[in-house]
Design brief:
Chain A: InterPro entries: ABC_transp_permease. Chain A: It comes from Phaeobacter gallaeciensis. Chain A: It is a multi-pass membrane protein. Chain A: Keywords: Cell membrane, Membrane, Transmembrane, Transmembrane helix. The complex is a heterodimer of chains A (360) and B (505). With 360 residues, chain A is mainly α. Helices cover 70% and strands 3% of the residues of chain A. A two-stranded antiparallel sheet of chain A has the order 1-2. Chain A is globular. The two termini of chain B are 28 Å apart. Chain B has 2 domains: 229 residues, 3-Layer(aba) Sandwich (Rossmann fold); 243 residues, 3-Layer(aba) Sandwich (Rossmann fold), CATH 3.40.50. In chain B, helix 11 packs across helix 12, helix 11 packs parallel to helix 13 and helix 13 packs parallel to helix 14. In chain B, a hairpin with a 2-residue loop joins strand 21 and strand 22. In chain B, the strands form 5 sheets. In chain B, strands 13, 16, 19, 20, 21, 22 and 23 form a 7-stranded mixed β-sheet that branches. Chain B has a 6-stranded mixed β-sheet with strand order 6-7-8-3-9-10, sandwiched between helices. A 4-stranded antiparallel β-sheet of chain B has the order 2-1-4-5, with helices on one face. Chain B has 505 residues and is of the alpha/beta class. Classes of the chains: A mainly alpha (360), B alpha/beta (505). Chains A and B meet through helix 9 and helix 10 of A and helix 10, helix 11 and strand 18 of B.
Chain lengths: 360, 505
C-alpha cells in the first residue's frame, strides 16, 4: 500500500523540480493523446517545443515568443500577488479588455494629432481601465463580503459585451466602410506601440513585463507589504495578529493585478493587435492563471513559465497548420500542464512511502 | 486482590524517529480507579489508543479477564466493554443530546426510548442532562456529561478518561468525582489520565507513571506526595519559579466598561469588563475555556477594536489602535493558538520573528526589510529561550509544541514590553519548559512590566500571579489578591458549577 506522509518542512528540491517534471509528464501524456488522434507523437511534441525556437522558420517565430509571452508574464505577475495572499482574481481577461478599450480610447480621442505625450497617456489610461475593472470585485468584497472569484469572472463577460459594443459603436472606425473595429493604431504613429528594435518582437509591453518581474521580486522578498501578502496567504489569523488590514490588502492585490492586466491589454491593442475588434481578446487573462501557478507564484518562475506557455501557443499553431492537430487538442495539452503541476505539487509537502501493511 | 481486569504486558509502539511506548506493563484491577500519569509526550495517549483499538502495538500483549485481547478497531474494543471519553469532544453543535448519542450507536433505538434511557442513566449517576437540549447551548462540563453518558449506555467494564478535568471548574470536578466513585462502587474500572497530581491523590487507588514512553514507577497516590509524583514524572528535581517581593508602580493597563459583541457565531461577547494592572504586577485571569479568553486577548492585541478609552495604556486611550500601533507603545501579546495565530506554520523562524518584532526591533526602514537584523533577532530568541531547533531557517511547524511556545513567548519578552498579555503560556509544554517560561514572565514583571496571564491552569496562576480574576461567560470577576484565596472562592469566581446541579446520589 502507498501512503502519503507529511514532510516536517516543505521540500526545496521538489519545489524547484515540479515545474520541470510537470512539463515532462505533459510531453509524455500529450504524446499519448496525439498518438490516439493518429498523429506521430514525437513529431507533434517536436513541432510544439522545437520548431518555434530552432526550426526552419525560427527567425519568424522567435519574436512571436516575446509578443505572446509579454502579456502572459505581465498579467501573471499581478495575479500571483493576489494568489499568494489567497485573493483570487479570475477576471484578468476582463481587466485586459478594459485596459485595451480605455487605452485605445485615449489614443483615438487625440486622432489625428501627433504628440509625444499621447502614448504615455494611453499607458495611464490602460492601467486605470484595468484597475477600475478590478476595483469592482475588490470593493464589493470589502464592503459586502462578496466572492471575488465569481464577481471578477462574471465581469469578464460584461467586458466582452462592452468590447463588442465599442467596436460596433463608439470606437468604430468612421472610415472603415462599416466593418466593425476601430482605427488601426499601428498606422497612427503617436499611439503605436512599435517594436523597439525592428524584427525582435521587443515592444514596450516586454519592457513593462520585465520591470514587473523585478518589482514583484523586490516587493515579495524585501518589503513589508510583500511579507504581509505572503503571511496572509499562509496564515490569515497570524496576519491579522501581525497588524495586516485585510481590506487594504484586498484593494492592493486586486488593484495591482487589474492594473497590470490593463497594461497588457493596452500594449497589445496599440501594438501587435493594432485595433479594437470584437474578437480582440484571445484568453491571455485565463492562460496567465496557468502561467502564475506554473511559475510557482515566484516572479522569476513566472518569467520562465510565460516563455514555456508562449512556446506551446506558437508551437500549437504550427502543429495545427502543419500536422492538422485540432485546436482543442492543443488546449487539452496546455490544461494537462496545469493539472500535472498541481498534482505534483503534493510532493513538496508530502512524501510517498510504500507502507507495510500493519500486522494485527 | 482478585485477578486483574486488564493486564498489559510489554506493550511497545514506535513511530518514525520516536518510541512512543517501550515495553510498558501494568495491571488494572476490577473496580479500581487507575491513574496514568506523565508529562506531555510521555506516551499516555498512545497507550490508551492501543487499549481502545485505535493503534496496534508493535509488540506485547493485552489480557482482558485472562483472555487475549487485541482490538482491531474501536468498535471491537467497545464490544468487549472498553469505553473512552476523549479530551476533545466529538459532538455536533447543531444536534440535540439524544441525536448526538444516537449517532455513535450501532443500532440506535427509537428516539423516545433512547431519551428515556438517557434520563435514567443520567439520574442514576448524578449527571442531570436533558436529552432534547441542543449541544451548542451546553457548557463544557455539560458536554462532557454527554460523552460520559454515551459511554455509560454501553455498560462498560473499563472507562478510559483522557484529562477530563481540564475543561471543568473545581465545583464541576467535584460532581465528576462523585460520579466516578459511584461507578467504581458498582465495579467499573476507570483508567484516569491526567497530569494534575492533587486530583489523582483524591480520586485514584493506584497510579502508573510514564516517562519518555517507559513505565518508571507505580505508587499509591494517597500515600505519595504530589512532589514525589511530579519528580517521578519529570525525572529530576523540580525548580519552582522564584518571585521576589515586588512593589507595584503606577497603573499601566486600564480596561474600563469594555463591552464587545461576539466576533463569530460560536464566540463569546465580553460584557462590561473592568481591570487595572500596575507596573510590576502579574494579573492572572482564570476561567474555563470558551468564556471570553480569546476575545480578551484580541481586544488587547488590537485585533478587535473597541471604544478608544475602553482600553488605556499608561493613561493613553488605545482602543482604536491596531496591533502595530500598540506594539510601538509597548503593549505586546502572545495568543494561545501557536500555529496559525501566534506563528505562521510554513514560514521560517526568522520570518516569524519579523511577524511581531518589526516595529520595536527596527527590522524595517521605509517598509524595506532588514533580513540580517531579523535573523539576529530570531537567533537571540532561540539562544535566550533554549529553543531546540537546528536554526532560524527552519519552518515553525517543524518545532515541537513546547519549543514553538518558548519561541513565541521569547519573541515578545525580548522586545522588552511595558505590558505583556499572554494566553495559555505553558499549554502543552513539558514541566521544565513551563517552569522556564513562568520564570521569564516573573523576571519581566520584576523589571517593572505589567503582565496579564490568561490561563486555564489554576496551579500556574496561583504560582505566578499577584492578583486573580476569572472570566465567566464574558464577564470578569473583580480581581482579588492571590494570597489567601481558597480553591472554593476561585471556583465561585469561575462561575461555580455553571448552573449544573450537584449530584444527589
Amino acid at each position: 500500500m502507498i501512503v502519503l506522509e507529511k514532510r516536517p518542512q516543505p521540500s526545496q528540491a521538489w519545489s524547484m523540480a515540479t515545474p520541470a517534471v510537470a512539463v515532462l509528464a505533459t510531453m509524455v501524456f500529450g504524446g499519448v493523446l496525439f498518438a490516439a488522434l493518429g498523429k506521430n507523437p514525437i513529431e507533434a511534441i517536436q513541432t510544439i517545443f522545437w520548431e518555434p525556437l530552432f526550426g526552419e522558420h525560427a527567425s519568424y517565430y522567435r519574436p512571436q515568443l516575446l509578443i505572446k509571452g509579454a502579456p502572459l508574464v505581465l498579467i501573471a505577475i499581478g495575479l500571483s500577488l493576489g494568489f499568494k495572499a489567497g485573493i483570487w482574481n479570475i477576471g484578468a481577461e476582463g481587466q485586459y479588455i478594459m485596459g485595451a478599450i480605455v487605452g485605445a480610447g485615449v489614443g483615438l480621442a487625440f486622432y489625428p494629432l501627433e504628440a509625444w505625450y499621447i502614448f504615455p497617456l494611453m499607458i495611464m489610461g490602460g492601467a486605470l481601465g484595468g484597475w477600475f475593472w478590478a476595483m469592482i470585485p475588490a470593493l464589493l468584497k470589502v464592503k459586502f463580503g462578496t466572492n471575488e472569484i465569481l464577481v471578477s469572472l462574471m465581469l469578464v463577460y460584461v467586458a466582452e459585451q462592452l468590447l463588442a459594443s465599442m467596436s460596433l459603436g463608439l470606437l468604430k472606425n468612421p472610415q472603415g466602410y462599416g466593418f466593425p473595429g476601430s482605427r488601426n493604431l499601428q498606422s497612427y504613429d503617436s499611439a503605436h506601440n512599435a517594436e523597439l528594435f525592428a524584427g525582435t518582437g521587443m515592444h514596450w509591453g516586454v519592457v513593462a513585463a520585465l520591470i514587473a518581474v523585478i518589482f514583484a521580486y523586490v516587493l515579495l522578498n524585501r518589503h513589508m507589504l510583500g511579507f504581509h501578502i505572503r503571511l496572509t496567504g499562509e496564515a490569515p489569523r497570524a496576519a491579522k495578529f501581525a497588524g495586516v488590514h485585510p481590506s487594504r490588502l484586498i484593494l492592493f492585490c486586486l488593484g495591482t493585478s487589474g492594473m497590470l492586466a490593463g497594461l497588457a491589454g493596452l500594449f497589445e491593442v496599440a501594438g501587435p493587435a493594432g485595433q479594437i475588434t470584437i474578437d480582440f481578446n484571445v484568453g491571455y487573462g485565463f492562460t496567465a492563471i496557468i502561467v502564475a501557478f506554473l511559475g510557482r507564484l515566484h516572479p522569476v518562475g513566472i518569467l520562465l513559465a510565460g516563455g514555456v506557455m508562449a512556446l506551446t501557443y506558437i508551437g500549437g499553431d504550427i502543429a495545427q497548420s502543419k500536422l492538422g492537430l485540432p485546436a482543442s487538442a492543443i488546449q487539452v495539452f496546455q490544461g494537462m500542464l496545469l493539472f500535472f503541476l498541481l498534482a505534483l505539487d503534493l510532493l513538496t509537502n508530502y512524501r510517498i512511502r510504500a507502507a507495510r501493511k500493519e500486522v494485527a | 486482590m482478585t485477578a486483574p481486569l486488564l493486564s498489559l504486558q510489554g506493550l511497545t509502539k514506535a513511530y518514525p524517529g520516536v518510541i512512543a511506548n517501550n515495553n510498558v506493563s501494568f495491571d488494572i484491577g476490577e473496580g479500581e480507579v487507575h491513574a496514568l500519569l506523565g508529562e506531555n509526550g510521555a506516551g499516555k495517549s498512545t497507550l490508551v489508543k492501543m487499549i481502545y483499538g485505535l493503534v496496534k502495538p508493535d509488540s506485547g500483549t493485552m489480557l482482558l479477564r485472562g483472555q487475549p485481547f487485541a482490538p482491531a478497531e474501536p468498535r471491537a474494543a467497545r464490544a468487549d466493554g472498553i469505553a473512552m471519553v476523549f479530551q476533545h469532544f466529538s459532538l455536533f453543535d447543531a444536534l440535540n443530546v439524544a441525536e448526538n448519542i444516537a449517532l455513535g450507536m450501532e443500532n440506535p433505538p427509537a428516539m423516545n426510548d433512547l431519551a428515556a434511557r438517557i434520563r435514567e442513566v443520567s439520574e442514576n449517576y448524578g449527571l442531570p442532562l436533558d436529552p432534547f437540549r441542543t449541544v451548542g447551548d451546553l457548557s463544557a462540563g455539560e458536554r462532557q456529561r454527554v460523552e460520559i453518558i454515551r459511554c455509560l449506555l454501553q455498560d462498560p467494564k473499563l472507562l478510559i478518561m483522557d484529562e477530563p478535568t481540564s475543561v471543568l471548574t473545581p465545583q464541576e470536578v467535584e460532581i465528576l468525582f462523585e460520579t466516578l466513585q459511584k461507578l467504581r462502587s458498582e465495579g467499573t474500572s476507570i483508567l484516569y489520565i491526567s497530569h494534575k497530581l492533587e486530583e489523582i491523590r483524591t480520586l485514584c487507588d493506584h497510579a502508573t507513571i510514564l516517562r519518555l514512553g517507559e513505565n518508571v514507577g507505580e505508587c499509591t497516590p494517597a500515600e505519595t506526595s504530589a512532589r514525589e509524583m511530579a519528580e517521578l514524572m519529570v525525572g529530576s528535581t523540580l525548580q519552582t519559579p522564584e518571585r521576589s517581593g515586588r512593589e507595584f508602580g503606577e497603573v499601566a493597563l486600564d480596561i474600563s466598561g469594555l463591552s464587545v459583541p461576539s466576533p463569530s457565531e460560536f464566540g463569546t461577547a465580553l460584557k462590561n469588563l473592568h481591570l487595572v494592572v500596575r507596573k510590576g504586577e502579574v494579573l492572572g485571569v482564570g476561567g474555563v475555556a470558551g468564556n471570553g479568553q480569546d476575545e480578551l486577548l484580541g481586544v488587547l492585541s488590537g485585533e478587535i477594536l473597541t471604544a478608544a478609552d475602553a482600553v488605556k495604556k499608561d493613561g493613553q486611550p488605545v482602543g482604536r489602535m491596531g496591533p502595530t500601533a500598540r506594539r510601538k507603545l509597548g503593549l505586546l501579546t502572545a495568543p494561545e493558538e501557536r500555529l496559525g495565530h501566534a506563528a505562521a506554520p510554513d514560514m521560517s523562524l526568522t520570518e516569524n520573528a519579523l511577524l511581531t518584532g518589526s516595529v520595536r526591533e527596527g527590522l524595517e526602514s521605509n517598509g524595506f526589510l532588514k533580513w540580517g537584523l531579523t535573523q539576529n533577532f530570531a537567533e537571540r530568541i532561540i539562544e535566550a529561550f533554549d529553543v531546540r531547533t537546528p536554526g532560524p531557517d527552519n519552518a515553525a511547524r517543524s518545532l515541537s509544541g513546547g519549543n514553538l511556545q518558548k519561541f513565541v513567548i521569547g519573541r515578545e519578552v525580548l522586545q522588552d514590553p511595558d505590558v505583556l498579555v499572554v494566553n495559555q503560556p505553558t499549554w502543552g509544554v513539558d514541566a521544565a519548559a513551563a517552569a522556564s517560561i513562568r520564570q521569564a514572565i516573573l523576571d519581566l514583571a520584576a523589571k517593572g512590566a505589567a503582565i496579564v496571564c490568561i490561563s486555564q491552569d489554576l496551579d500556574e496562576l496561583m504560582e505566578i500571579s499577584d492578583s486573580f480574576a476569572a472570566l465567566n461567560e464574558g464577564r470578569l470577576s473583580a480581581p482579588r489578591e492571590t494570597t489567601g484565596l481558597t480553591v472554593e472562592e476561585i471556583g465561585l469566581m469561575m462561575g461555580g458549577a455553571h448552573g449544573m446541579e450537584v449530584a444527589h446520589v
